[in-house]
Specification:
Chain A is about 65% helix and about 5% strand. Chain A contains eight helices and two strands. The chains are: A mainly alpha (about 220), B alpha+beta (about 180), C mainly alpha (about 190).
Chain lengths: ~220, ~180, ~190
């Protein structure tokens, strides 16, 4: 029973309560970094790292923090970890840091991080908070990767993945390079792709919920 | 002691100050560790930009030139290429470009820009930037009167024009002295 | 003078912060359901962006002089949070009706990407151009959110496909608006 509850903490934000596709939180970086899967994976890993650290620390000090100043304290902790991650990325993954540009310091004001800190880490144990952080972080990564997957394919006809630490290409396949639609690499394409993906995900969710209620009604009868 | 801690006016600022102190020291530590790495990478980027300017290995001598500090000019180097031609290479930064300033090298000879290259990745959230990137050679041949690129709201192209004008003005003052 | 105009216009239209910079989307989608609330949010954000960029411009000079430039994010976000708190207290005291109509938007401005982005961008600019940029960006957001809220009011009663009602169709309409704004890129 306990492991089932714990696994729910991790699995829920991955798909069922995905912070971006379902709860519609923290959309700003999704549109900005989903041009290529390189940037998407890099941003996702940065968010996971920041979420992990902040949830860990906030959950550790949750009993010591006075209630009135908790928001400024959380903000200082989040901003510090984001700056540390930014400095480390500038030093060890320079090309990735430069292509992500201003979006790394903007992780500070990402609604997901402050939201999870306030709603979960400040009230639950360290272990649960870490699971929640990893769940939400990977949920973010999955959502951004999905958008980038389609955007890069439509905009350049293929994908390119490279190692951020050494800037060497792991693979680059562009099967449909002749049919590339550069529109999807620009701002219009970003909104289009994200809108369509959210629409499809919502439609799938709604129909599966309908099926569940129909099944429940049939079982009652 | 416990009564002091219960007092709201002691507890709140003290806890905030404690958190700030701990995390500022963590940040200072990270900065201390990563700063030298970032500085050495910046030097490498500038070296690479020099190679793009006149081709790899074509520079036979470099000499720093002293100058009065201005907004746009970061450093000036007198460069002699392997075919014994003298160029003045200016390390320039644009100013007031709203999506982020650019840092680039511009080689000037005979009052005209004859090569330029960007330092670092030329990736920027800027519509007007596509015209200037490496390999497009759009700024080559500019001598102060024939700026041919206009970006959307002229904010980006103004930034480049101002920076190049400053470099050309300095070059003109050098030739005036000679 | 034309420089200042070009900075303002670039921030307002050609490099619009919502449609080109992808910032401020959360509040853009959440607040634009009614035109009155979007107007309130626009005014509040313009004020906060303006004040925050002026304060952070001078604060950054202090940080650079003390050689602790890496503290930029932490200091700026603290300044923004306290500024929003201060503005909220001020409005509550001096105009309770305005406070009631703005309601939940003021505390939300703290986590609005636009404020932190603008304060970080302006630290390298000249003072007058910095003011033009901050005002241009905030008014660009105001313009887009106002236009979008008028569309969205009609959108709520339109026959939209299942699953696309709400956020998804809003994003698709924004895509068309972004395409329209791209057309401004050659004018000024």
């Amino acid at each position: 029973m306990d492991t089932q509850k714990k696994s729910k903490i991790f699995l829920n934000p991955l798909l069922k309560e995905n912070p971006i596709l379902v709860l519609i939180l923290g959309l700003c970086p999704v549109l900005g970094v989903s041009e290529t899967i390189d940037k998407a994976i890099g941003m996702g890993m940065a968010v996971i790292l920041v979420l992990f650290c902040t949830n860990l620390v906030i959950s550790l000090i949750r009993k010591l923090v006075p209630n009135e100043v908790r928001i400024p304290i959380y903000i200082v902790i989040i901003a510090s970890f984001v700056t540390m991650v930014q400095m480390l990325m500038n030093a060890f993954t320079p090309e990735l840091a430069e292509s992500l540009g201003a979006f790394i310091p903007l992780i500070t004001v990402n609604c997901i991080i402050l939201g999870r800190a306030e709603a979960f880490a400040s009230k639950n144990s360290v272990g649960d908070s870490i699971l929640d952080a990893l769940g939400n972080g990977f949920g973010f990564l999955i959502a951004v990767f999905l958008v980038a997957f389609f955007r890069e394919f439509l905009a350049t006809g293929g994908w390119k993945l490279s190692n951020p630490f050494t800037n060497s290409t792991i693979f680059e396949i562009r099967p449909l390079a002749d049919f590339a639609i550069p529109l999807f690499g620009q701002n219009t394409g970003a909104f289009l792709t994200l809108g369509i993906i959210i629409g499809i995900v919502t439609a799938i969710r709604m129909s599966s919920e309908q099926r569940k209620t129909l099944k429940a009604k049939k079982e009652v009868q | 002691m416990k009564n002091l801690w219960e007092n709201k006016f002691v507890r709140l600022p003290l806890s905030l100050a404690a958190v700030c102190l701990v995390f500022s020291s963590l940040l200072a530590l990270t900065n201390f560790v990563t700063d030298p790495i970032i500085a050495s990478m910046q030097e490498e980027k500038e070296k690479k930009a020099y190679e793009v300017l006149y081709g790899e290995g074509n520079i036979s001598s470099r000499e720093e030139v002293t100058f009065e500090a201005t907004d746009n000019i970061n450093s000036i180097t007198k460069v002699v290429t392997t075919d014994n031609v003298e160029h003045y290479v200016y390390n320039l930064s644009t100013k007031n470009v709203i999506s982020g300033d650019f840092n680039f090298l511009a080689g000037i000879k005979d009052g005209k820009v004859d090569a330029y290259s960007f330092i670092g990745v030329e990736n920027n959230n800027n519509y007007g930037f596509a015209e200037f990137s490496n390999g497009k050679d759009r700024l080559v041949g500019y001598d102060g009167s024939n700026f041919s690129i206009v970006s959307g709201a002229t904010n980006t192209s103004n930034g480049f024009k101002t920076a190049l004008d400053a470099a050309l003005a300095h070059y003109a003052s050098l030739s005036a002295e000679a | 003078m034309s420089d200042i105009f070009s900075v303002f216009m670039a921030a307002l239209i050609t490099n619009n912060i919502v449609l080109t910079g992808f910032l401020g989307i959360c509040s853009y989608l959440g607040v634009s359901k009614k035109t009155s609330s979007s107007v309130g949010m626009g005014f509040a954000l313009t004020f906060v962006v303006f004040m925050a960029s002026v304060i952070c411009y001078f604060l950054n000079m202090v940080l650079v002089a003390a050689n602790i430039e890496y503290m930029q994010t932490v200091c700026f976000i603290l300044v923004i949070a306290s500024l929003v708190q201060f503005v909220e207290m001020f409005i509550k005291k001096f105009s309770p009706s305005l406070y009631k109509s703005l309601g939940i938007f003021l505390p939300l401005i703290t986590t609005n990407c636009i404020v932190l982005y603008v304060t970080r961008q302006v630290v390298e600019m000249d003072f007058v151009k910095m003011i033009a940029y901050a005002l241009g960006t905030a008014l660009g957001y105001f313009l887009v959110i106002f236009i979008f809220s008028t569309i969205r009011e009609k959108l709520d009663s339109a026959p939209v496909a299942k699953g696309f009602k709400g956020v998804a169709i809003a994003l698709l309409v924004t895509a068309i608006m972004a395409m329209a704004f791209t057309g401004f890129s050659g004018i000024f």
